[in-house]
Amino acid sequence: MQTFHFDPVALPAGIPEFRAEVRRFLAAELEGVPASRRINSWATYDAAFSRRLAERGWVGMVWPAAYGGHERSNIERYVLLEELLAAGAPVGAHWITDRQSGPALLTYGSEAQRRKYLPGMARGETYCCIGMSEPNAGSDLASVRTRAERLDDGRWKINGQKIWTTHAHNCHLIIALVRTSPPDENRRQAGLSQFLIELDTPGVTVRPIVDLVGDTHFNEVYFEDAVVDADCLLGTEGEGWKQATAELSLERSGPERYMSSLALYFELLRVIGPEPPQAIRQIVGRIASEIWTLRQMSLSVAGQIAEGKDPAIEAAIVKDLGNGFEQALPALLQSIGETGMSLENDTEFARTLGLLLQTAPSFSLRGGTREILRGIVARGLGLR
After folding, report:
1. Is 135 helix (H, G, I), strand (E, B) or coil?
2. Rounded to whole angstroms, how far apart are CA atoms 16 and 22?
């Protein structure tokens, strides 16, 4: 049985100066951008902005210099991420690549794969998406039905479908979790492997999915007799489950798990002014305390990752609590009902609130549902 803990993290020297540098850059880049365009910003695609970040060394920050990285600390990267999200910067183009696809290549990729793809990723020019979820499978990754069949010449033929694949229509690569052999009778997760596939490969088709607010950042990806070279296998055949779940620890613990609605909070502060009614002051204080607590927990997980640990339980807790906070925030502010804060008003607050009320229900789906997260915590604590 494991235990979990959220130890404080001491920020290294130089962080205040680095934070100030990032804020100056973002103030110039985002001047005049309204709050309604700053919500859920880590899903907002802007390739030009990602390239400008990369020019400053802020993509692939912690990667080795041999692959285009900058060998900065994980804590510096965390500070950069929270400043980007607090400002509502459009970082969706490179976000997944920087957060988990690049690190997966560094951990499991061959030297040839690293040399071929990582420098372009660090320049903000090459983007990768995640191919895990499938139709009718929900969050049960062990029920993956996409299959890879080894051909006589050593190549692989892949057939199947992935869904909810963020920005696949704008990406160059996908890391797909597929079945390469039948599952073990006692372990359904056996027989899975990961493949690094270029999305312009013949037989691969990407079809965008339009969501409730008219965005098309989700996609379906079809593999129809798509033949890939043997060296597209990422890591070890049959170890796909282990590799994919290690990636998910990176995906679940970052500041994006509680900051997706933060622009609405800042817009609230602007609307209410310096002397709000006592009831609203209490709401403001409650929100601030929740943000502070989630930030300390998330930063603690970043510190554990920097030490080479695998804080899977802590990451699951942060995502569960963080998603609960960022989903509840729009409804909480809607309930205030003060003059000038109604959805019927043509104000920036109303536009931002309206968008979040429609999009926030999805926040607890991406990266694993609450049921999955609580199952991870329960198993880790020996409760199931």
Report:
1. coil
2. 10
The CA-atom distances, in angstroms, between 51 and each of 56, 126, 189, 279, 337 are 9, 10, 38, 44, 41
- Asked if 347 and 340 count as a contact pair (C-beta separation under 8 A), the reply is yes
Residue carrying the six token digits 């869904």: 163
Report the C-alpha gap between 264 and 8 in whole angstroms: 28
Active site includes 251? yes
Domains and CATH numbers, the chain: 15-127 (1.10.540.10), 130-238 (2.40.110.10), 244-380 (1.20.140.10)
Flag whether pLDDT at 301 surpasses 70.
yes
Taking a C-beta distance cutoff of 8 angstroms, is the pair 128, 97 a contact? Answer: yes
Q: Are 128 and 50 in contact (CB under 8 A)?
A: no
The dihedrals phi and psi of 307, each to the nearest 5 degrees, come to -90, 5
CA distances (Å), origin 2, targets 6, 8, 118, 187, 241:
14, 19, 35, 22, 21
Annotated catalytic residue within 82, 251, 256, 314: 251
Q: Tell me the β-bridge partners of 205.
A: 222
Interval 91-129: pLDDT, tens: 999 999 999 999 999 999 999 999 999 999 999 999 999
How many Å is the maximal CA-CA distance in the chain?
Answer: 74
How does DSSP classify residue 216? -
Are 177 and 223 in contact, with CB atoms under 8 Å apart?
A: no
Q: Which pair of tokens denotes residue 153?
A: 């010449």
Give pLDDT tens digits for 47-66: 999 999 999 999 999 999 99
Using the structure block, give the residue that is written with the tokens 């235990």: 3
Q: How far apart are CA 307 and CA 301, in angstroms?
A: 10
Residues whose CB is less than 8 angstroms from the CB of residue 112 and which lie 6 or more positions away in sequence, other chains included: 231
DSSP state of 170: G
Please, which residues bridge with residue 71 across strands?
Answer: none
Enclosing H/E stretch for 129:
strand 128-131
Contacts of 274 (CB under 8 A, 6+ apart): none
> Which runs of consecutive H residues, i.e. helices, occur in 261-347?
262-272, 278-306, 312-334
